[in-house]
Specification:
13% of the residues lie in helices and 57% in strands. It is mostly beta strands and 143 residues long.
Length: 143
């Protein structure tokens, strides 16, 4: 997938997110929280080592959108998704509505189950550890 296609896929995901949720009643959305805003996903730390990433997340009014690209073990992966999120104490729960990914040039449209991260915030850095396998995601708040 070319860099331009990746960019357009990310822009399309954000546009669909905005269009999908623009007409909703604001009273049904959660109040502002500590993750609201745009975050760069700097790296993913697996038990086998860290992987540098390109892309990030936008969290706003209980909804999120993400486009992330990385290479691991010689395979290029591109993930775009959006859905809802909730913050329960230090648990960030992502519930994807739409998920598209490519791995080794194979497009995958699989439903993703909810994904829970135990988060810690230090300044503009957020670390989230996945409950399912201990993988750590390192985010940096964009200003």
């Amino acid at each position: 997938m070319t860099r331009m296609k990746k960019l357009w896929l990310g822009i399309a995901a954000l546009a669909v997110t905005a269009a999908t949720f623009a007409g909703e009643d604001a009273s049904t959305r959660p109040s502002a929280d500590i993750v609201t805003g745009a975050w760069k996903l700097e790296k993913i730390v697996y038990s086998s080592g860290a992987v540098e990433t390109q892309g990030g997340f936008i969290f706003l009014n209980g909804y999120y959108s993400t486009t992330v690209n990385y290479s691991r073990q010689g395979t290029q992966t591109n993930i775009s998704q959006f859905g809802t999120y909730s913050l329960e104490g230090n648990r960030l729960v992502l519930v994807p509505s739409v998920h598209v990914s490519t791995r080794a040039q194979t497009v995958i449209y699989e439903a993703e189950p909810p994904f829970t991260l135990e988060i810690t915030l230090t300044g503009d850095e957020m670390r989230g550890t996945a409950q399912k396998d201990g993988t750590t995601f390192v985010f940096r708040r964009l200003r």
